[in-house]
Design goal:
Layout (H helix, E strand, L loop, with lengths): L1 E4 H11 L4 E4 L6 H10 L3 E4 L3 H15 L3 E5 L3 H15 L4 E7 L18 H6 L4 E4 L6 H13 L6 E6 H5 L1 E4 L14 H13 L3 E5 L1 H5 L3 H11 L3 E3 L14 E3 L8 H6 L2 E5 L18 E6 L13 E4 L2 H11 L8 H36 L5 E4 L3 H7 L11 E3 L8 H12 L3 E6 H4 L5 H7 L4 E7 L4 H8 L16 H8 L2 E5 L2 H13 L4 E6 L15
Parallel strand pairs: 2-3, 2-4, 4-5, 5-7, 6-7, 9-10, 9-12, 10-11, 12-13, 13-14, 15-16, 15-17, 17-18, 18-20, 19-20
Antiparallel strand pairs: 1-8
Helix pairs in contact: 1-2, 1-6, 3-4, 3-15, 8-12, 10-12, 13-14, 13-20
Length: 544
């Protein structure tokens, strides 16, 4: 037991949890925590410009590293500002912990109108957080944080939150700081694994469908070796990109929803799904048929059978499950070679059709990003036309935890997600962002400058909401409304923030500018004028 203030107890618990960075904004309702972090050392606070950005940055940090991402906010408005970030983290199954202040305990729950009073704050947090705790005595601080962090880091990750009244942060007490030696991994049932292995041993046309749970379990290498042992084509969800390198012969990419792959999936006699809940986008809203026997391995029993019935349900950690299956298929019959060859031909055709759809300029930009960004460089995509048409589908992802996107399809998370990912990994991080969504978190450019974050903002600028322009063009008799935006000179804005910014008007200019950005120390913004590029098919591309 040690005598500490509540703020010091928060700091010591975070240190015990191995936390190295926290994201947030200093407030009258969390300042003792920040003071303890500043005095204690070992944890770097990242000062963001909006609490939504704090949660998105903690989320990007968690996805890029696999570590606990931590945000510290104020009570009341600080928490309401953070809700979109928590929502995105929940949608992404990302291990994020939010610590927020609360008003003085003597006023809490009395509705007296105290500064930043939020009587229903905990109930609000519960709508998007997997576990929440409200500290009722100073001595509970360390235990509450530890318990919520354990919940976040065990099984299928979901964000968690702890609220701590401000008087408890100042108060002194005796604290027992828990020691953390790692989190338990859910071991799958042996009988279920044996039944799954038996199906895979006999399969002639096996297929693997990998989701983000493979990355959560750091099981990409095991998944790849299992695919090689089975000679099985591997599809991924968008969240599962990087589970197998997309330059691997068996990698089909995040493209199972493409109609061209229907013959492959319908011909599969066994489908092994790992760490996925079969979200709507990956399945054309569950119209993709999986007639073969389905083995579903996931840490969350609630997702198994939710969208597709499973022949064998395996509840447990993806890494442990895949390792067991790899052992279990050591002696197996050979797969049909023509089945794999056909899948590869279809994959190559789909990739070429995507390149043709996006046109030569965007194909060249995509190739430049992949060529010049290191193999382990991180690619972040906001919800924008380039992301939908090629960023989420076609730019090759070659390493685990190097692909991050807006899983909830919200516009705006891109920049803070990229900042968190770059800070956590220390790697060059390229962001594919649209000008409309960029405005939601444009203030985080100052965060990138202040902390010299190695992020390259590739801002695809069509002065509006390109996706919605396309939708409106085919509905409401083609009337356009709400999609044209007054847009600043983003390169000038970036320079005004203290970072390098330049305007790009061609694919060749992009190549030169991106090369300079790769070589630069610190953040760079490239304002890409889409009206000067060959238009993309499908969802549009330039101003109308």
């Amino acid at each position: 037991m040690r005598e500490l203030t509540g703020g010091e107890a928060v700091y010591e618990t975070l240190r015990a949890l191995g936390v190295e960075h926290v994201f947030g904004i200093v407030s009258v309702h969390n300042i003792p925590i920040y003071d303890a972090i500043g005095r204690g050392g070992g944890i770097t606070p990242i000062s963001v410009r909006h609490e939504q950005g704090a949660l998105h940055a903690a989320d990007g940090y968690a996805r890029a590293t696999g570590k606990l991402g931590v945000a510290i906010t104020s009570t009341g408005p600080g928490v309401t500002n953070s809700m979109t970030g928590l929502f995105e983290a929940a949608f992404a199954s990302s291990p994020v912990l939010m610590i927020t202040g609360q008003i003085d305990s003597v006023y809490y729950g009395k509705g007296k109108g105290f500064l930043h009073e939020a009587e229903q704050q905990l109930a609000m947090l519960r709508t998007v957080a997997g576990r929440t705790e409200s500290v009722r005595r100073p001595e509970e601080i360390a235990g509450a944080i530890f318990q919520v962090a354990g919940s976040v880091m065990t099984g299928r990750p979901q964000p968690g939150a702890v609220e701590i009244p401000i008087d408890f942060q100042y108060a002194k007490g005796d604290f027992d700081i828990p020691a953390v030696e790692g989190w338990p991994r859910m071991r799958p049932n042996r009988d279920a694994l044996e039944r799954a292995a038996a199906l895979l041993r006999e399969a002639k046309r096996p297929v693997i469908w990998a989701g983000g749970g493979v990355l959560t379990a750091n099981a990409g290498d095991t998944l790849t070796r299992l695919a090689e042992a089975l000679n099985a084509p591997v599809f991924t969800s968008i969240s599962g990109r990087g589970a197998i390198p997309e330059d691997h012969p068996l990698a089909m990419g995040p493209l199972p929803q493409q109609p061209q792959f229907t013959p492959v999936l319908e011909a599969a006699d066994v489908v092994l799904a790992v760490g996925t809940r079969f979200q709507g986008g990956a399945t054309r809203n569950w119209s993709v048929k999986l007639p073969g026997k389905l083995i579903h391995l996931d840490a969350d029993p609630g997702v198994i059978g939710r969208n597709y019935p499973a022949e064998v349900a395996v509840v447990g950690d993806a890494g442990l499950g895949l390792a067991s299956l790899l052992q279990g298929v050591a002696a197996r019959n050979d797969s049909e070679a023509e089945f794999v060859a056909n899948a590869q031909r279809i994959r190559d055709g789909v990739r070429e059709s995507i390149r043709a759809q996006i046109g030569p300029d965007y194909a060249a930009i995509m190739d430049t990003m992949r060529e010049l960004l290191p193999r382990d460089g991180i690619i972040v995509r906001d919800a924008t036309v380039p992301a939908y048409l090629w960023g989420n589908r076609a730019i090759p992802i070659l390493e685990p935890r190097t692909s991050i996107h807006s899983t909830s399809a919200a516009i705006g998370p891109g920049l803070p997600l990229a900042i968190g990912a770059a800070i956590g990994s220390g790697k060059k991080t390229a962001l594919i962002q649209g000008d409309g969504g960029f405005m939601l978190n444009i203030g985080e450019l100052a965060t990138a400058v202040q902390h010299n974050v190695p992020v390259i903002v590739c801002l695809f600028n069509d002065c509006g909401y390109g996706v919605l322009r396309s939708i409106e063009a085919t509905t409401f008799e083609g009337r356009q409304f709400g999609v044209e935006l007054a847009t600043p000179n983003f390169a000038m804005v970036a320079r005004g923030m203290g970072m390098h910014g330049e305007t790009v008007r061609s694919a060749s200019e992009f190549r030169d500018a991106f090369a300079r950005a790769i070589a630069a120390d610190g953040p760079v913004l490239l304002d890409i004028d889409m009206t000067k590029l060959e238009p993309m098919g499908g969802l549009g591309g330039g101003r109308r």
